[in-house]
Structure formats: structure tokens, C-alpha cells
Amino acid sequence: MDNKALLKHSKRPIGVFDSGLGGLTVVRELTRTLPHEDIVYFGDLARLPYGAKSKKQIIEFSVNNTLFLLRQKVKAIIIACNSSASSASSYLRRLFPVPIVDVISATAEEAAELSRTGRIAVLGTKATIESGVYQAKIKQLFPRAHVITQSCPLFVPLVEEGWLLGKVTSGVAEHYLKSIKKAKVDVVVLGCTHYPLLKTVIKKAFSKKVALVESAPRTVADLKKILQDQGLLNVEGRGRLSIFVSDKSRNFIEIGSRFLGEPIRSVKIVKW
Ligand code: DGL
């Protein structure tokens, strides 16, 4: 690409997709770190949750989501959904010639760097945990690591209901984290878009020395580096955010605003 074409390409938006609205935590980080970038977000609310679905189904949904974003002429894509990243990211990278960053690689890297003892816990959906991707990536970077995993399927509906604190949520967390507490880990990976909103409750279950790792900061830092290296960073844009969903769930504006950290002003519905 010559300089003029590169400049034009750099003005294109960054595409982000998730099974629902949890990926807006990544958008929140993006707008903070890269304020001049336009962002197109797609949340597949019609087909949420991905975490309980088969690999084949998640791949099919993820291909659709990527095609949608490419139709919006994005210059790069963040797979903000851990379930999708664990099942589909290598497939999507083979299929589409656009930089694709996923939440798992960056988060696994950070966990491996942070851990002193090598005892690392990963929390995620069933799809993410059963894929073994976190375990493999952490072991690649830290071969002596002992990775303990736990799927926490009830965390997603609790967050969707806005039950971020309180007895019920603490009880569910205690139940899921029982064996991990005994395992004396020093790092816990929040391997699902929704879990950062349960940080207070999860943190309470562990000692102060245990570090919780969430996906957004490192994922966005990785994308920034790729855009910089390829001369695709937008340093003078207005930073517009467009949010698309495949369905409106009942309280999606309220939930979405919680993930985004500010009120959502407008959302467009996509008909496939
Ligand atoms: N976005 C999903 C993830 O990060 C959580 C919700 C779902 O199961 O679809 O794994």
C-alpha cells in the first residue's frame, strides 16, 4: 500500500464482536486507549449464550459475525468473546486476511507473566474450559505451570440480571471457587467477558495476594501494537462508536451501559 492508501485504510473502524454485550468491556478499554479510533461493535444477542454450544456452532456464528464486521469495512477485528476465541480464532485467522486479535492470547500471556508460583486458575464458560486453549497457551509460555480450571455457567445469567453483589452471587462464587481456593493459586484468569463485573465477589473468595487477570487491557494493547506496526493507527479521528445487535433482549440498554461504563445512546438491530 502506498502512503495515501495506508492513511485512508487507517481511518477505517476497528470491529469488535461478542456473543452479547459483555464485549463492551473491551470497547470501554479501546475508547480509553485509542480515543481516535472508530469502533463497530456487534453483539449476537439472538444467539447468546455461546458458552454452552458446540464448537461447530460457535465457529459458524463467529464466521457470520466476522463477515458482518468486514461488510462494515473494518481494518482489524477483536474477538471479545472467550467462547468464540477458544473455538474459532485459528479458523477465522486462516479464513480472513485481516488482523484478528482475540482475548485469550493476550490474557494467557499476562497470566503467565504475572504468576510467580506457576499455579494459575482459569475461570470460563464450558466451551472455553473444555477447549483447553487457555491451558495450552499458558503451558506454552510457562511449561512448569499448573493450570486449574473451573467453568462457572451461572455467572453469566447473574451478571445479565445485574446481581453483581449479594448473598446469592457470593454463594454461587463460593461454590465454584471451592476447589480453586484449596489449590493455592497466585493468579486467577477471568476468562469470560462477563466475569470482570463480578470482580468484587470473586476477589473476596481469595487472599489479597491473588491477582485477577481480565482480558481487556492487554488485548487492546496487543491490537494497538499491531496497528502501529502496520501503520494503521488512527491518530486524528473522532472516535465514533456504532453498536449493532442481532436482537434486543429485554434490558439490554441497562446491561450494555454497565459493561460500557457509560450510557448507550443508540443501538441498531441487524437482520441476517
Ligand atoms: N461472551 C461469552 C464469553 O466470553 C460469555 C457469554 C456466552 O456464553 O455467550 O465466553
Offer a quick outline of the entry:
It contains 12 helices and 10 strands.
The backbone outline, from C-alpha atoms, is globular
Task: State the distance separating the first and last CA atoms.
Answer: 33 Å
What structural class results from the helix and strand content? alpha/beta
Number of helices: 12
Describe this entry's structure for a reader.
By secondary structure, the chain is α/β, with parallel strands linked by helices. It has 12 helices and 10 strands. The chain has helices at residues 3-10, 24-33, 55-71, 82-95, 103-114, 126-131, 133-141, 155-160, 167-182, 199-204, 216-229, 252-260, and strands at 14-18, 39-43, 76-79, 100-102, 119-124, 146-151, 187-191, 211-213, 241-245, 267-269. The strands form 2 sheets. A 6-stranded parallel beta sheet has the order 4-3-1-2-9-10, with helices on both faces. It has a 4-stranded parallel beta sheet with strand order 6-5-7-8, with helices on both faces. Helix 4 links the parallel strand 3 and strand 4 (100-102). It is globular and about 55 Å long. The protein starts with a helix and ends with a strand. It binds D-glutamic acid (DGL).
